[in-house]
Amino acid sequence: MAEPSPAAEFPAQPTAIVTGAASPRGIGRATAHRLARDGWAVAVVDLGQDASEAVAREVAEQHGVPTLGLGVDITDRDAAFAAVERVDRELPQLVGLVNNAGVSSPVPFLEVTPEEWRRVFEVNVHGTFHMTQAAAAVMASHHLGRIVNVSSVSAERGGGVYGRAAYSGAKAALLGIARTLARELGPHGITANSVAPGSIDTDIMGGTLSEARKAELVSDLLVGRIGTVDDVAAVINFLLSREGGYVTGATYDVNGGLHIA
């Protein structure tokens, strides 16, 4: 392991890239707003250019910070690297990366096709790899960085009755990646952590779960309610912040007590 160097000074206005940030009720969009509230410049990255630009404009108008909306297929390595290069060129110093983009696959394991398995890993794992390798190189040049992988409680306890073997496996990979990045990139002034959300009221949950099923979920939660995207965004905000600089290699369970490690 390389010998650690003194930590660099946190910039007055850092920049964060948030992937998967264009969903109207998603964790990524909430995180973009939460960071901007604290003065971060934000690059909104999602598959659609129009949607990414719309969220970036919304964040800029509400919080008065520089933003950039980028439509990027993060499974395309060249596209991911080009996006990071543009952020580095057009926004203030890149300090944070939130690997939030992901897709699920509620298919029983015995019915999962190789194509579906690859699709889930391409977005959740390979896309994270591309974005992180590009962003970490920029962060290392400044000797300061914060990386947060958005995993899932499914990575820790399995996908339960939903049949999400591919999703759980991909999200579990993100935990191991973050822990290894913490060791390898620490000497470059970069921290790497994960958050593992549980039952969160997002577009995905709202579109796939009945009210009866939501009531069942609440009965399993120690805090007595479904989580919100803002609950998760607040933890991500801390991990990216100046104050979060002594936390690395950790997994923060944001699940209302659904799973206690």
From TrEMBL:
PANTHER family: 3-OXOACYL-[ACYL-CARRIER-PROTEIN] REDUCTASE, CHLOROPLASTIC, SHORT-CHAIN DEHYDROGENASES/REDUCTASES FAMILY MEMBER. SUPFAM superfamilies: NAD(P)-binding Rossmann-fold domains (SSF51735). CDD domains: SDR_c (cd05233). Belongs to the short-chain dehydrogenases/reductases (SDR) family. Pfam families: adh_short_C2. The keyword Oxidoreductase applies. Gene3D superfamilies: NAD(P)-binding Rossmann-like Domain. It comes from Lysobacter korlensis. Keywords: Oxidoreductase. Its EC number is 1.1.1.-. The lineage of its organism: Bacteria, Pseudomonadati, Pseudomonadota, Gammaproteobacteria, Lysobacterales. Residues 14-198 form the Ketoreductase domain. The keyword Oxidoreductase applies. One of its GO terms (molecular function) is oxidoreductase activity. This is SDR family NAD(P)-dependent oxidoreductase. It comes from the Bacteria.
